Amino acid sequence: MSFSTALAHHFLPETILALGVLALILIGAWRGTRAFGLVNELAAGLLGLAILALFFGQTSEASLFEGAFVDDAFARFVKVLTLVGSLVTVLMSRDYLQRAKLGNFEFPVLVVLSTIGMLLLVSADNLIALYLGIELMSLALYVAAAFDRDDARASEAGLKYFVLGALSSGMLLYGASLLYGFSGTISFDGIAKAITGAPPLGVIFGLVFVLAGLAFKMSAAPFHMWTPDVYEGAPTPVTAFFASAPKMAAVAITTRIVFTAFPGIVGQWQQIVIFLAIASMLLGSFAAIGQTSIKRLMAYSSIGHMGFALVGLAAGNEAGVRGVAIYLAIYLVMTLGAFAAILQMRVEGRPVEKISDLSGLSRNNGTAAFFLAMLMFSLAGVPPLAGFFAKYYVLLAAVDAGLYPLAIIGVLASAISAFYYLRVVKVIYFDEPAPAFDQSPLSLRAVLAVSTVFLLGFWLYPAPVVEAATAAAKSLF
């Protein structure tokens, strides 16, 4: 296969989005304030086309751009999840942004730009590609966080995310420079070949800084400081985006770099990942208990779920990577469904965000109440919903790897976190009814229904997700 042919087959989703976003910017500049609806629909079309390119494109593995970009089953699996997260965010955001008079064409453009960075990040196979991908993703996210310029909370959220994001990027870049200095190469494979036996202290420092920078992007404790404030302050569609697609890319590149660049020092990076996993699970379990805002609750929930995903990574084997892949897929569905429900929380045209606003939802809208209750049960890991199987696969991998204390802490953290998820269900079904929500758009109701059906039916037919995750894990080994 020639280079141009390989580029067309293996770089097609990124090419579609890169060319498409240029067209979106031109259309937005041409039509001005009237461009939002058209640009939003075209952005959704581009993301959908990129998903089709992954499903029906080349399935063989390839390395492009002098080894900077790799296309394998693991990358394609995570790219599908990332694109689904971005696509659903664009579809869910239209009504909210128009009602809030934020219907500028820039938001879908920012989503597509950030998604390009995520796709490059997932396929990064050297340190420079890693940094370029993470910065392209992050620069668009900084702007999106402060998208509502007239809202002080959104501006504060954007500033916090920018300052802390810049700090994390600096840490990652410093760690990458240490790794290059001690290995003499930027390639992940080259680093793996250069680091044999007992690693020098500088390599350990470099590894710590790189993992710290990536932990910030996935909001793993103790690098989670930005998460609750940004989730609460940013417009809800932006929060939904932050909670879904970027986390897929961050966990994926963390998985790739530890297994590809550091296969010979599993014991060293395993300790770091175990610490991040335990800290995230415990913080997510305890800190969410006292929250009154549903968006802050989802922020701490996402921190906890990233901890569970890292449990699979800490196992350090193929079963662990398979567990991580399955966890990401199920977490994405649960998160998008939950934010579809949150976006429907609107009373007399005004969005509401308190958990108490859900009071008596079962008597005002029984269908929505049932769907949201099932989402909460799944997030808590109650069988036979999909959330239970997500935790089952990562904890099983930890047990198989002999990490019994980690698995026990995971089970205890899951039991603690069930308290605040079940509290939401109690508010929905047993509290006195609050004012009924306004009629929600079809797109939100569809996302809520489809995600709930997936979570309810996963145990009946898990094969497609499990088989795809298994193939993705094998490609890293």
Structure description:
By secondary structure, this protein is mostly helical. It has a domain at about 260-475. It is about 75% helix and about 0% strand. It has 21 helices and 4 strands. The protein has helices spanning about 5-10, 10-30, 35-55, 75-100, 105-120, 125-145, 150-185, 190-195, 200-215, 225-235, 235-245, 245-260, 265-285, 295-315, 320-345, 360-365, 365-380, 385-400, 405-430, 440-455, 465-475, and strands at about 60-65, 70, 345, 350. The strands form 2 sheets. A two-stranded antiparallel ribbon has the order 1-2. A two-stranded antiparallel sheet has the order 3-4. The longest helix has about 30 residues, at about 150-185. The protein is globular and about 65 Å long. The two termini are about 25 Å apart. The model has no long low-confidence stretch (mean pLDDT about 90).
Give the low-pLDDT segments. none
- The global form is globular
Order of helical and strand elements? HHHEEHHHHHHHHHHHHEEHHHHHH
Residue share in helix: over 70%
Which radius of gyration do the C-alpha atoms yield?
21 Å
What is the count of β-strands?
4
- Averaged pLDDT, please? 91
Distance between the termini: 24 Å
Sheet of most strands: 2 strands, antiparallel
Structural class: mainly alpha
How much strand?
Answer: under 5%
Number of DSSP helical runs: 21
Strand order of the largest sheet: 1-2
